[in-house]
Task: structure prediction
Amino acid sequence: MKIRIAQQRDLPALTQIYNYEVEHTTATFGLHPVSIQERKKWFDAHNKENHPLIVAEQDQTIIGYACLSPYRFLEAYKETVELSIYVDRNYRRNGVATSLMQAILEEARNCSDIHSIISVITSENTVSIHLHERFGFTYCGTMKEMGRKFGRLLDIVNYQLIL
Result:
């Protein structure tokens, strides 16, 4: 497996991985699949300044990705980013998320403008919670019934890592 900066040619695979989560899991509160064109705006917001987007690639197949996105669009939050990690369902439980977490945290530590990393996780996503705890993220609270997906109101938990 190789971890590298995402490239434009990766966009179809990134979109496919994300859309699976939209349609089948509560890992994202997205409710409708997005097109490659819609996802391009998200892609273009990364790989600049302190918002890297990386992919895990195996045998020329994108099997997961991680990114640091702006945490709100107010100037005071400039040094805070929000972390997202997604792994293709066929490659889970093989250390892909761990490798992506290690790599994205290294990217973050190399960015002088990043001070705080936030992750907003659906409370039932215990795999993601444990991953964050293994890497030293601190639990910062639960927000009750924040989003409705698959007919259920879901809680979110907030985790933070200060660099």
